[in-house]
Design brief:
single chain, 334 residues, alpha/beta, Rossmann fold, 2 domains, seven-stranded mixed beta sheet, four-stranded parallel beta sheet, 15 strands
Length: 334
């Protein structure tokens, strides 16, 4: 290996500039970054490449994850670490997906970005990018992580929790891996290991998984309309508390049971930022277990969504997906 870091620019606020219509991607970003990075000392050597076309964070699709993964695999043996520049809106979703696609990564894959574009006053871009590069050059740091706002987080335990703060990401059910103060930590926690090697997935079906938030008044016809989509193979329910759904209307649970019987993998995740789904705490959640709905434990929505997508791409048998989903693959749940 060359001892260099590959910086992969996928899009996002960090590489945007002002226009009459608002921020838009700048065309000369790859030339501007080295000029700004030259103002910092002590950085490792790096190369910068850009995806073409760039991805607007809000337009991210699961199929983009396969595209990013292919780019990393193409350059894997040429670099000691990777820094991915990504739009903040869906950065945690991509970090979660890559964690399942690179479960046994022996080098760092660090995602970062900015709340304010690189060229704007008070931009947080250089601080995030400079530290991410240094962390990516450390042999003590492996696996998929997020560095943002001075904090290093496990990628598949993270979520965007603020649209305005420089510390935009948090890890509700897991402690941060490290905080960057005056000095950087020299000993980071060992990365979680999974039972499967790096997963080569060439394509992902953008429409295979959907999400339904449970709310007062949810009825069976709405579930049936959602689960009759031809491409749908997975459904994530965002339920109340420890995994509760309304059970006063039997037709609602019957609609979910029919979805499971049809081969749709249904996952139950709490709406709460902190805590876990525990089937059996209340009678309503016990019913879900009986009809074949599986618990997401304390996974973030991003991790549950990405994990379900990856497993559905690997397995045609819904029961095999259900079995694998319950197993912690790379530290995504407690």
């Amino acid at each position: 290996m060359s001892g260099r870091i590959l910086m992969l620019h996928t899009g996002g606020t960090i590489g945007m500039e002002r226009s009459p219509q608002g921020y838009r991607p700048m065309t000369r970003f790859s030339a501007i970054v080295p000029q700004h990075m030259a103002t910092l000392s002590g950085l490792p050597d790096y190369d910068l490449i850009e995806l073409a076309p760039l991805i607007d964070s809000a337009n991210l699709l699961p199929s983009h994850w396969a595209r990013i993964a292919r780019t990393l695999r193409t350059h894997w043996n040429q670099y000691d670490g990777f820094v991915i520049l990504h739009g903040t809106d869906t950065l945690a979703w991509t970090a979660s997906a890559l964690s399942f696609m690179f479960q046994s990564a022996d080098r760092p894959i660090i995602l970062t970005g900015a709340q304010i574009p690189l060229l704007e006053p008070r931009s947080d871009a250089l601080a995030n990018l400079g530290t991410a590069l240094i962390l990516a050059s450390s042999p003590a740091n492996r696996g998929v992580t997020i560095f943002f706002g001075g904090v290093l987080l496990q990628g598949n335990r993270s979520t965007k929790s603020s649209s305005t703060d420089f510390q935009a990401f948090s890890s509700p059910n897991a402690a941060p891996l490290a905080r960057a103060g005056i000095s950087l930590p020299s000993q980071l926690p060992a990365p979680p290991t999974g039972p499967m090697p790096n997963t080569h997935i060439d394509t992902l079906d953008d429409h295979a998984v959907t999400v339904l938030t449970v709310y007062p008044g949810l009825c069976a016809t709405q579930i049936e309309a959602l689960t009759q989509a031809p491409a749908l193979r997975g459904l994530i329910l965002c339920s109340y508390g420890t995994g509760n759904l309304p059970d006063a209307d039997p037709s609602l649970l019957q609609a979910l049971a029919r979805a499971v019987e049809s081969g749709i993998v249904v996952v139950n995740r709490t709406q709460c930022a902190q805590g876990s789904v525990v089937h059996g705490t209340y009678a309503t959640s016990s019913t879900l277990e009986r009809i074949g709905i599986i618990s997401a434990s304390d996974m973030t929505l991003e991790a549950a969504f990405a994990k379900l997508h990856i497993l559905l791409a690997l397995h045609r048998d819904p029961q095999q997906v259900r079995v694998q989903f319950r197993i912690p693959l790379c530290g995504e749940m407690s």
